[in-house]
Specification:
mainly beta, Archaeosine Trna-guanine Transglycosylase, Chain: A, domain 4, 14-stranded mixed sheet, 5-stranded antiparallel sheet, globular
């Protein structure tokens, strides 16, 4: 005979005077840490977490939840987060009944499993209860503390740039329009961090190319072909006047800048490989995302999964092509979620956070299609465990089978047209992106549905082809379905978003078992003995 318990902690307020409140549903005491958890919780919280499985959707897990507490004396003050976003962590465990003493015994805190870790806000009170809105990690949703221009001249820009965010370049990106910080001396900022330095014939040369009107500059100082010729690296861009027709580069801790020896006629664009503020150079997509989380967004490295990797590597059994990069020009403010979405959108990679708050990168890969039915395996949900099952609609973008797989790559951040294009321009600098295509079904009875062109951070055709092949295997077939599957809460630890599931149910197509991918979960305070998973089969 067992009874489930719920306990958690709520921390909010300024860092220097942070307040932590402990709470549970019926009262709990952590005898090891000597922490009491008063019975403030009215029930298990309501929570919905879903992946956007569309090709054009965000690269993040979406979380919507609510927690209700009883307004006993002092509780309103202890949970009032209207001025701050709180960090919340909830766990659950099983009490056991001691018939000899006639009471329920609390489990050890170490035996309680994580239920949710994220943020809480929007405190609302009623007559006897108060509610908090629960969502994902607060660090991802907050506007980033971006470096901004002081407007004092030089590399800090003129008065028109005062308060404007400085650009960021992470990884390789092409066709960027740099920020002109000094129009008189033709000084442009490419990034708020260094760029990669390459060794060319024994010389250190920045991996950066200047284009004017789509015409690339030349590495050789004596060349007359192209637009601007490389004139060397300098320690202070403001004190070096390059020779006519040349450009010099400053790259270091205060950022990367280019200065031209003359006034351009056409639009200046740049292609370069950006490093991170600490000088780290990475090129693969999952490595870029990890460094952005730590260095740009400020996520503690300890909260990132120790087995962080590209999920498509595991699917292929070897490392796949995934070179990528992105540029943020500083024209508007953005959040950590915006940066992650820019990197992951259209790649079938998704950032999710486990119930304990650990950030993990998962992939919408087709490996679950090859699962072999085994009713006794840990991955299996048996028919007698299914409390309720119902099919739900696929997103409208995927409702009809696609006719092919397509993924874009080699994004050009500035598409030149009209008077901005030099007569000598090469056509490769003018398009917005390219696409890798895998042909799907040619059945004439199917409606032609073309995948959306989503600009990705990929730089190579090989990286895009990996995704195009996955789209072809997943979404060019008419029998892909999405189910809500309700099973006993006791199985919560067996699955998480991104887990594979072998689903057996008394539903057509599921009776003999079919492989599925968990893309969402839901639980309700009114039904503490159940959990509902969203499963793609």
């Amino acid at each position: 005979m067992q009874q489930r318990c719920f306990l958690g902690s709520l921390a909010f307020g300024p860092a220097a005077s942070r307040t932590t409140t402990y709470l549970s549903d019926t009262g709990y005491v952590d005898t090891t840490a000597h922490i009491p958890y008063p019975p403030y919780l009215s029930a298990c919280p309501d929570m919905d977490r879903e992946l956007d499985i569309t090709l054009s959707g965000t690269g993040l897990t979406q979380t919507f939840g609510q927690m209700t507490v009883n307004l006993e004396p002092g509780v309103a003050d202890a949970c009032n987060v209207k001025n701050h976003t709180a960090d919340i962590a909830l766990r659950t465990g099983l009490r056991t009944y001691d018939p000899g003493r006639g009471w329920w015994m609390d489990p050890d805190a170490s035996a309680c499993v994580p239920l949710f870790s994220g943020s809480a806000a929007s405190w609302r009170t009623g007559a006897t209860q108060g509610t908090l809105t629960l969502s994902g990690p607060a660090a991802l949703s907050r506007a980033l503390p971006l470096k901004t221009y002081a407007g004092t001249g030089g590399v800090e820009g003129g008065t028109t740039l005062t308060g404007k965010a400085k650009p960021k370049l992470r990884g390789f990106a092409a066709g960027m329009t740099p920020v002109c910080v000094d129009s008189v001396n033709q000084i442009y900022q490419v990034s708020d961090a260094p760029v990669q330095i390459a060794n060319v014939s024994g010389s250190s040369i920045p991996n950066l190319t200047v284009f004017e009107g789509g015409v690339p500059g030349a590495w050789s100082g004596s060349s007359t072909a192209g637009s601007w010729s490389y004139g060397g690296m300098v320690s202070d861009i403001t004190s070096t006047d390059p020779a006519a027709g040349h450009y010099v580069v400053e790259t270091g801790q205060r950022g990367t800048f280019v200065r031209l020896g003359g006034t351009p006629v056409y639009t200046i664009t740049i292609s370069a490989t950006g490093l991170f503020p600490d000088g780290t150079h990475v090129s693969r997509l999952h490595d870029l995302v990890r460094q952005v989380l730590v260095q740009d967004i400020g996520i503690p490295a300890a909260t990132i999964a120790t087995d962080w990797a590209d999920p498509f590597d595991a699917a292929a059994g070897s490392a796949v092509a995934s070179d990528a990069g992105a540029y943020w020009d500083g024209s508007s403010s953005y959040t950590g979620a915006d940066m992650v979405t820019t990197l992951l959108q259209g790649t079938l990679r998704k950032l999710t956070y486990d119930r304990d708050g650990t950030l993990r990168l998962i992939g919408i890969t087709p490996t679950f299609l090859t699962l072999v039915p085994n009713i006794w395996g840990k991955l299996a949900v048996r028919p007698e465990e299914v409390i309720e099952i119902r099919q739900t609609d696929l997103p409208s973008e995927l409702a009809l089978p696609l006719t092919c797989g397509r993924c874009t790559y080699a994004r050009n951040y500035t598409v030149l047209t009209g008077n901005n294009v030099s007569p000598k321009a090469i056509s490769a600098t003018l398009g917005s992106q390219r696409a890798a295509v895998t042909v799907g079904t040619d059945a004439p009875t199917l409606e032609v549905v073309s995948p959306p062109d989503v600009l990705t951070a990929f730089q190579t055709a090989a990286a895009a082809q990996v995704v195009a092949d996955a789209i072809n295997k997943l979404w060019t077939y008419p029998d892909r379905r999405l189910f809500y599957v309700t099973i006993p809460f006791a199985r919560i630890s067996d699955y998480r978003i991104g887990s594979e599931m072998m689903l057996f149910a008394n539903v057509d197509g599921l009776r003999n078992g079919i492989g599925g991918l968990v893309v969402g979960e839901s639980y309700r305070g009114s039904s503490p003995g159940e959990i509902t998973f969203t499963v793609l089969v």
